Fold this protein.
Amino acid sequence: MGITKSEMYTAKQNALATMLKAVAHPARIAILQHLIKANACICGDLVGELGLAQATISQHLRELKSVGLIQGTVEGTSVCYCIDPKVWGRFQKELDALFGSYKGGTACC
Amino acid sequence: MGITKSEMYTAKQNALATMLKAVAHPARIAILQHLIKANACICGDLVGELGLAQATISQHLRELKSVGLIQGTVEGTSVCYCIDPKVWGRFQKELDALFGSYKGGTACC
DNA sequence: TTGCTATATCGTAATATTGCAATCAAATAT
DNA sequence: ATATTTGATTGCAATATTACGATATAGCAA
């Protein structure tokens, strides 16, 4: 039904899924990589970089902001976006925990 | 439009997004964690563990299989699923690269 | 064979996501 | 004040995802 029955999973599982979903889109990955590469506040040039409409970029930015991965500060007419190191680090740690919890050298079947 | 314009991203970005999307669902996270915890081949008991219908579980398993994260071997009447260590390791490395590419102590805005 | 068990697949309904044009809101410039 | 610029929001249309009942398929048992 396109609806996820989140009530049957643990809070951690839901949080992890939400986190991953935020990053699970090429446009949002591209945005994050651009912000990282620029290593400084990048404002509207994202619209020029990716080939998407301004409204679409704005929407992706909002999604990234809603999970806390990026933050935006108004700077006159434009807005300055950058990675939030704290949340970024938390993501990193959580993913490490998930993927590090499996230590299997060989498939068992 | 619900359609991702994948032609405007790099192959890596698309691959990363596909990878992440496969894991970005609590049911699939739960399945993976169950497979990890059991550390052995787990067959149909997944249907009992999660509160989802058999058809739904089967669908999630197929998605995980389609990205290679798990593999299934037919074992008589039942099918035995387990993590594919090789693909798992690749995922881990890719995510490490993505999240490790940002080394910022402080937000710039 | 017939029946039983375990999974996969099909079809479908409900909901979510993606993308954009149009529009709005706010700051600045003329 | 008016125009311009930048970004957010709204309102769609197209497509994707999630979930499940029903049905298929395949192995095994009696």
Remarks:
- Chain A has one domain: 10-97.
- The two ends of chain A are 33 Å apart (CA to CA).
